[in-house]
From TrEMBL:
It comes from the Bacteria. Residues 10-150 form the Knr4/Smi1-like domain. Pfam families: SMI1_KNR4. This is SMI1-KNR4 cell-wall. It comes from Acinetobacter puyangensis. SUPFAM superfamilies: SMI1/KNR4-like. Gene3D superfamilies: SMI1/KNR4-like (3.40.1580.10).
């Protein structure tokens, strides 16, 4: 089981609607409830697996993004800031909901609610004319709940 530690200010349904109006899409119901309950948060355990080029890989959730953060001190926790940063770097109908510690992002598919891993090292070079694609995006889970329930604690091996 996981534990969640909220780090953000409380938000309202109106805050979520305002964000949805900006992105012109509705958030999946499960994620909307999570966002309203926790806003910006840390989760423990925080490790997850995914397949990248048919090989098992793993990463960690740094924190979940949220709304109503301090615009100067905590902008990097903001869904608004990440949306601005990522909207031309990821396919449409995806939203970054959490970064990992290495510059990658956990995405949610806005029409289906599935969870995906975005690898910045394999990102399309749009300045060189490459199109944004699914080439650097790997499936993690069918839903947010499935993803949260699959998280595990990193176990360090003894030397």
């Amino acid at each position: 089981m996981y534990q969640i530690e909220s780090k953000g200010y409380p938000i309202s349904e109106n805050d979520v609607i305002e964000f949805e109006n900006l992105i012109t899409l509705k958030l999946p119901h499960e994620y909307r409830i999570f966002l309203l309950q926790y806003n910006v948060c840390m989760i423990f355990p925080d490790c997850f697996d995914f397949l990248e080029n048919n090989e098992k890989s793993d990463s960690r959730i740094r924190y979940f993004l949220g709304l109503n953060v301090h615009p100067r001190k905590e902008y990097y926790y903001s869904l608004y800031w990440y949306y601005d940063l990522m909207q031309r770097r990821i396919p449409k109908n995806f939203l970054a909901i959490a970064p990992d510690p290495f510059g990658n992002a956990i995405l949610i598919h806005l029409t289906g609610g599935s969870i995906w891993f975005w690898d910045h090292e394999l990102e399309a070079d749009t300045e060189a004319g490459e199109e944004v694609s699914m080439d650097n995006i790997s499936f993690i889970a069918n839903s947010l709940d499935e993803f949260l329930n699959s998280l595990y604690e990193l176990k360090l091996e003894d030397d």
